[in-house]
Amino acid sequence: MNAPIRYAEALLTGMLGTFGLDIEYVRAEKNTLYYLDEDGAEVPVLDLIGGWGSLMLGHNHPEIVSYAKELLDTGWPTHSQHSSHPVADQVGAALNQIIGRELPGAEPYTITFANSGAEGIETAVKHCEFDRVLRLKTLFEEIEWNADVALKAVLGGSAALPDDTSLLPGEVPAPTTIEEFGALLGAVAEHNIARAGTSPVFFALERAFHGKLVGSLQFTFNPIFRAAFASLGPAVNFVPPNDAEAFESAVAAHRVTVLDVQVVDGKVTLVERDLPVIAGLIVEPIQGEGGIHALTAEFAARIRQICDTVQCPIVVDEIQSGMGRTGKFLASSHIGLLGDYFVLGKSLGGGIAKSSVILIRQSRYRPEFELVHSSTFAKDGFSTAIARRTIEILEADDGAAYDRAAERGERILGMLRELAAEFPDVVVDVRGKGLLIGVEFADQSQASSPVIREKARAGLLVFQLGSYLELAHHIRTGPTASVPTMLRIEPSIHISDQEIEQMRTGLTEVCRILRHQDALPLVYPLSGAGGQQAPRTEVEDFRPAAVEEAAPAEPATAKVGLISYPLTPDMLREFDPSLAALDDDRLLGYARRSELLKDLPAFAPVRYESPQGTSADLTVYPLLVTQQQLREYQVAGQTFLIGIDLDRRVRAARADGCQTVGLGFGLGSVSDHGRALRVPGITLTTGSALAAGSALAAVESAATERFGDLGELTMAVVGGGGQIGSALAALGAGQFGKIVLVGSGRPGSAERLRAAELGIYQEAWSRIAAGGELGGIPAALAAEPLVAGWLAEGRSGDEPSGAAIAAHLADAHDVNPFVVTTDDLLSVGNAQVVFSAHSSAVPVLDEKHLADGSILCDLSFFGTGAEANAISARDDIRYVRGGIVSVSNHPTPPRGVSASLGAGELLAGVAEAITLALSGSSARPTDGGASTRARVDAIVGLAREHGFETTTT
Ligand code: PMP
């Protein structure tokens, strides 16, 4: 059955699926979410995210649920806007009472309702600006009045003209006549008007999180969320938390004044007045998404002072920290932070409703705001009633819920501190207050396990750890929005001792995994259907014995990248040895699961020195994709999907300084030989020219030795439609009399064989047109009337000619005398020389296919020599490994491309990329289409100059 199409956040759900977190929960209570297993049985999961802070009272608190039912059963109106709403007032009264208790001396706060945290923040910001504009209006009215008073005083003779105009920019002389005074008033008004349009200045703290709507987002620090939308809202100045001096100087830097004309001691005088440009400061008393950082009481006191002097309102965002989560109703109460505004959300909805409120100190409140602001759903009957009941439950028994939050929080923190003491190498910090807690793990971006390292580098370490906790321990944790190494723990007050112990067990395992760099427990649950026993249950130690100190080397002349993938499961085991115990199916299952996150960390660079004096560092950039998946992309016409991955990796190589990048193991064939990639500043090669060239060189000498003249021989190419296969065919045609191209019979194969056939004719014609001595197929083709005619006309060798020759041959001959295309492997038996250039991991040929005494050049499965064993019983056959070059001064093959390479050997395709880098060449050997003899000869020659010899083993 096909998976259902996802319409809602398919990418996000897909990425969660990469970590096995795309779980459908069907029921929830307290701190437990349930999903159904394959047999329909409920599986409980301990929920430590708690609706991202919305579940102070847990999932489906029974009293709230029964109250909600009661509301619905009694027909309580949810929507009755523009009517009296006593419940909303009651919520306001209850909150005022709490604020009065926790922050003694606070004046009353009005209450405005909204639907979400971000909307609450935007409403507060909107009110701040409304207030500022009204303050601006009042100031200008005063200035206008004062100017009028001054003018009248001068005219009436009760005030002297001003004698100091230095506050006005420019050299403005003091007025001596009433006309000049009139002009001065005009200049002052102009000056003021120019400044009146100064944009409002808002302040927020670095690491802040205040929401993701276009307005609230401007106050959210993390540029990952904000950057693309920065032009959609107010420019916000971010200042460091707990640094009052920095805030004070930022405020001072934004001071703007206007001029007032006042009568002082019988003289008209210019006076500076502060323009209200500073609209507000928004703070979280404990930054949640920013990584659980608390403000200090000292900072709270200082910002209060500074803001009072410039009339800047302080908006306190208690959306996450409020509602009792930290042991008091407001986290601000711990530090005596008296906000001009408080914003609450999340748990205010009792875990079932969506609601937020903005509390505004009465002396700063602008009642006219109610006439310009509204929202259909805000202050609805249902959520206000639920908010009222939620507050009642929290306040019951003298605020027992707050005490419980504090006590449970301490217990969790105590457990986590013990863990941190046991694993100081793994846990860098444990912090929080009450039930707002973060566990910060050590950065793993230099981890020795590549699986762990790559996830850390991608900023996804907590997802990987969360995946393990969820799948192996049935514990659901969350990330924070800004600290990729922090697990967030925000359970409800119902968390039990037993659940805290469950947490301890899971987190202890996480610490052991990280300490020992054992990726198997992380990967195993993602590697296939559950049920089976893991190959081992104990964490094992995979820490490297000693850290190798790399000798500081002179930088290489060039850097070359190779994009590859683990061709066989063994290569994946070699890549991360902790995965060795996983069987092939599990490893392939893991690769499949990683569809959306294929990057694996690059291997350490390996240096190649050329006899010409240049050097190149080769870095392998692997992708976690299998041969099978690549084939599926091809069959489904979705090679663009792997194209996206290739593009990203090629760009990564470029960013690392690579000028040349090779696409290994047939990645060229899924990217139109790299042409589908649009990455400027990079020479891309698929390496097929040197692979074909070195194989032909090896075979031509062996065949001449065995058979003499090649012109009478037939050569067969298994995988004749592939890039290397078609290059071999086009070039081999120059010597051989007949060519058999064998395809796989899979979709698209016939078309690829046809293209290869036309390539043979095209190359043949260009050789004929070039003149000189001809052999093989070109020699015979030159005698065909069509071709002879072209020659007489002087037609150019570059003219597209393959299709015309093919049409001519079909007309002129019953059976094509030169080229056979087929998917029948038995036709290989007609050839004296056979190239195996297919991409199948299993042998395609066996003994019965090959003619007596024939030569087999094996480039199968990207140079891994897949055919070797299948024909080992035939000692009449000359077996030549193809697609390999030898590099005498570099005995150890690089990791990640080492599939079955011996000492001093290298895949020709990789050698091509290195050769190009060593020679500083920016010409792609396969640019402009198929490999031509000239191009191939050139790259073979160049490779030799740089120390790569074609082998004949
Ligand atoms: N402010 C803070 C401090 C928050 O933690 C959040 C949500 N994590 C918001 C605002 C935004 O709330 P919402 O997601 O309901 O818009």
From TrEMBL:
Signal peptide: none
Matching Gene3D superfamilies: Aspartate Aminotransferase, domain 1 (3.90.1150.10), Type I PLP-dependent aspartate aminotransferase-like (Major domain) (3.40.640.10)
Keyword flag Transferase: yes
GO MF term list: identical protein binding; pyridoxal phosphate binding; transaminase activity
Name of the protein: Aminotransferase class-III
Cofactor(s) annotated in UniProt: pyridoxal 5'-phosphate
Source organism superkingdom: Bacteria
Keywords of this entry: Aminotransferase, Pyridoxal phosphate, Transferase
One Pfam family recorded for the sequence: Aminotran_3
Organism: Actinacidiphila yanglinensis
